[in-house]
Structures are given as structure tokens and as C-alpha cells.
Write a structure and sequence with these properties.
263 residues
Length: 263
């Protein structure tokens, strides 16, 4: 674990050094992501500002939910999205060969070599939205609560990563995964707007067990609101552990099935 963390830190420093060579691109991403975030918040304010509650959730809880999902998205964009996004092309064109021959863990290199440091401000803006929702709810900010919420965000961020990895490992076994990538975008868009507490029946089964996008921002919001019970917490952590184990196993299976460009 310590060796992998040092490897990720090294990739971060290399990425920062590369980014600072092209400062215009860095600050361009900063302003573009910030502007997009503000537009999204305006749209949500117009929608949710007209109602006092949705599915038993107050307006403050909805703000926390929106900020939490935005934080998860920003964390993914900052750390690993652009590395994993290119994985299907590397599989198709044999680019994985280069990673298998380099020292270090190939999955870590693939995931973290293309960090988007310009997305970091999204985390601060998302934290501001969460804080605003807490103020509406009258939730007192304490260090234990911050640590509890932060730990759940990291856990749900790992689940977010697991889903990205699983869907982008499928191209090891099929010719094209374009439809799968579109599915991921649609699922994220839907669950960014609708809290998991609204799902019933088959939809709850789908978004809580099969494609667990429904719990990613819902669980941290419930924790911050004080409505997440021990069973809910245990369930969320079990889902994270299960999907992480499956993602790593599936990745290993994909590598064993991989036909390199030289074969």
C-alpha cells in the first residue's frame, strides 16, 4: 500500500510539472469548469427553488445532495477520469502493452497519469454548496462530522471509480463499448438529479445493487443530515467493498484475456 501511494504521488508531481508548462491550458480548464459548475447550480436553483421538499427531503438536504454528487464528480475528474476514459482505445489499439512493460502497477499508472488539476476548484465549489445546504438545515459543523462525511465521500468516490473501471474493462471482451459508455453518462446524469430515496421497486434494485449510482451521493447526504442508521452505513460499506473486489478481479480477468498488439 505504501509503495502504491508513493507511486501515485510521483505521478501527481509529474502531472503537475507537465501542466505548469502549459499554464494557459490549466487556467482555461479552471475557468471552464468553474463556469459550468455555476450554470449547473443556477439550473438546479431554478428547479428546486420552487418546492420545499422532494421525497421527504428538504431543500437543504437537496443542496447537500447536489454538492455531494458534484464533489464526487470533481474528485473523479481531478484524479482518474481522463486516464480511464482512454482505456477502451488503448485496449483496442494495443496501447496496454506499454503499461504492462513499464515498472509499477499498470492500473495505477493508467488511472492517475492523466490527472486534471484544473478540476480541483470544483471540489471547493462543491464544498461551498454542501456548506450552504448545512446552513439551510441548521446543521452545526463539527470536526467529527467533517471527518465522518469526508470518509464517506472517499468511500463513495472509490465506488464511483469502481464503476468507471468495470465499464471500461468490458472492451477486453467485446469489439466496441460505445453503447456502454453512453449508458454510464445517462446513469450519472439521472442520478445527479434524483436522490436515491425516490427510487422504488425495480429502480431501487437497479440503482442500489446492480448499478449503485443511487447511493453515491445519497449516503453522504443522509450521514450529514443525521438520518443514516447503522444498517444503512453497513450496507453502503459492503457495497463499496464488494464492487471494489469485483472491479479488481474483473480487471485481472481482462488482462488475462487481453490480446496484445504483438501477438
Amino acid at each position: 500500500m505504501r509503495r502504491n501511494l508513493r507511486f501515485i504521488w510521483l505521478l501527481t508531481k509529474l502531472r503537475l510539472a507537465h501542466t505548469m508548462v502549459f499554464r494557459v491550458s490549466f487556467f482555461g480548464a479552471f475557468f471552464a469548469d468553474g463556469a459550468l459548475f455555476l450554470v449547473q447550480m443556477l439550473a438546479f436553483s431554478l428547479i428546486y427553488g420552487q418546492v420545499d421538499g422532494i421525497g421527504g427531503w428538504s431543500r437543504g438536504q437537496m443542496m447537500i445532495f447536489i454538492g455531494s454528487f458534484s464533489m464526487l464528480n470533481g474528485l473523479s475528474m481531478f484524479l482518474c477520469f481522463f486516464g480511464l476514459a482512454d482505456l477502451p482505445r488503448k485496449i483496442r489499439e494495443g496501447g496496454i502493452d506499454l503499461y504492462l512493460t513499464k515498472p509499477g502497477n499498470p492500473l495505477l499508472r493508467l488511472s492517475f497519469e492523466s490527472m486534471d488539476l484544473g478540476s480541483a476548484p470544483l471540489l471547493l465549489l462543491s464544498a461551498f454548496i454542501v456548506a450552504h445546504g448545512m446552513a439551510i438545515e441548521g446543521i452545526m459543523l463539527t470536526l467529527p462530522l467533517i471527518l465522518y462525511y469526508g470518509a464517506l465521500i472517499l468511500a463513495m468516490g472509490l465506488l464511483y471509480y469502481d464503476m468507471e473501471l468495470i465499464l471500461r474493462t468490458i472492451p477486453f471482451f467485446v469489439i466496441s463499448a460505445t453503447a456502454i459508455e453512453r449508458l454510464e453518462g445517462d446513469m450519472l446524469t439521472l442520478n445527479f438529479k434524483i436522490p436515491g430515496v425516490l427510487y422504488k421497486g425495480g429502480f431501487k434494485l437497479l440503482f442500489y445493487f446492480v448499478l449503485p449510482y443511487g447511493i453515491m451521493a445519497t449516503v453522504p447526504t443522509e450521514a450529514l443530515s443525521g438520518v443514516l442508521g447503522p444498517w444503512g452505513l453497513a450496507y453502503a460499506l459492503a457495497i463499496v467493498a464488494g464492487f471494489t473486489a469485483f472491479a479488481l478481479w474483473f480487471w485481472g480477468l481482462g488482462l488475462r484475456n487481453y490480446k496484445s498488439a504483438s501477438s
